[in-house]
Amino acid sequence: MEVRLPYGRSDVLVTGLPETAQLVLPPVMSVPAIAPEQLPQVLAEKLGHPIGTPKLASLLSEHDQITIVLPDKTRKAGQAAYLPALLGWLADRGVLPERIRLLIGLGTHPPHAPEELERLLTPPIYREWQAGARLAESSGERSDDFVLIGQTGRRTDVALHRWLVEPGLVIVTGSITYHYYAGYSGGRKGILPGCAASGSIKQSHQLAFRSTEHGAVIREPLAVAGKLEGNPIVEDQIEAARMLQIPVFLLNTITNPHDEIIDLVAGDLVAAHAYGSTLVDQYYHAEIPEHADLVIASAGGFPSDINLIQSHKALDNAVRAARRGARVLLLAECSQGTGNDASLAWAALGSADAVLQHLGAAYEIVGGTVEGLLRKAEDWDVQLLTTLPPDAVSQFGMNYLAHQAGAPIDVSAWVSEHDRVVLLPAAGITMPFVLPSGA
């Protein structure tokens, strides 16, 4: 048996698989995408029947300035499809382009090159909004761009991009999928961390860890993928977003691995997102009968495997399908490196526990992700097919898989007669679920 799995902007052929290998595809793979010509109509229907908030049309006449928040290139959200449809919907209701600003929420991610912005927004929109100085990127490192508006009950300083604090209407867009700390992406994450200062982002992410009464640092058990209720990061981000004194309207998409939109939710930042998260469970959950001896997972190709930090999301899902100690092969090109140069210094601490304790003394967002990578490399035999240098791979505790570009990968030597093998072609959006015994 053989199968092609996404890798960067291409794919890799995996051979030597037993005929019993289970190809695990979430339901989203068989759901038809919304056709481009139908998207404006579907969008209008969602905006006309929002969840938990007045119709967007009723808010337009009350506010001269409209800021549309967009996710960056690391998120498959269908921006190039829904943004023209949204702008067209606004134009049909008399909203001139001069009233609209586009704000890309980078969080702590690096800025885009001009050609990347063109692809993200479509060339006509990029040219028009750039020329009118109505396009900006919210980079958490540019301190002058942010306004401190308060502090949450968990002592997170809420410093948000000034465009969100100025009078007007904010439309937060993006996609909903799983997030290994914050339960689900989308919703309030478009504001914090998307359009927040780096210090605020750091404080909020730090809630994924807590100190015991003896001073040891541990992972917060409720700050995990697929968990909203009781998740301290989620609750902190919602509280921060609610501090805005202007109306915030949510438009979130659910996409397939090809960045095609299959569904949308619109309305209240919390209520619409909560409903959208239930749809994600329906679309992305995938049942497997038992944990596997070998899991072969693709992060989903570009941009899901753009760097190691982003690819961690796929690894977080992949190990859910594997028995403890089993081999997990992750295909993640990482064309833009680790995603954060500081990650190597954190990895040099040598173990997940060493990173965890260091986080208690000097927390950094990237350190939290490195702890997750090292922890999985300690608990599973992680093999990484990547363009990262071999020494960098080993520093993260993983095994570098040597591979010639264009050549197949033969895994027959890894599989014995009775081994259970699971294949995850879209691990970044697939949540494996092992049924309890007797279920």
Structural descriptors:
30% helix, 14 helices, single chain, 439 residues, alpha/beta, 6-stranded parallel β-sheet, 6-stranded mixed β-sheet
Q: State the helical fraction.
A: 25-40%
The secondary-structure class comes to alpha/beta
Task: Label the overall shape.
Answer: globular
- Overall pLDDT: 94
- For the biggest β-sheet, the strand order reads 3-22-17-18-19-20
Total E-strand runs: 23
Would you kindly provide a written description of the structure presented here, covering whatever features stand out?
By secondary structure, this protein is of the alpha/beta class. It is built from 14 helices and 23 strands. The strands form seven sheets. The chain has a six-stranded parallel β-sheet. A six-stranded mixed β-sheet has the order 6-5-4-9-14-15, sandwiched between helices. It has a three-stranded mixed β-sheet with strand order 1-2-21, with no helix packed on it. Helix 4 packs across helix 5 (123-131). The mean pLDDT is 94.
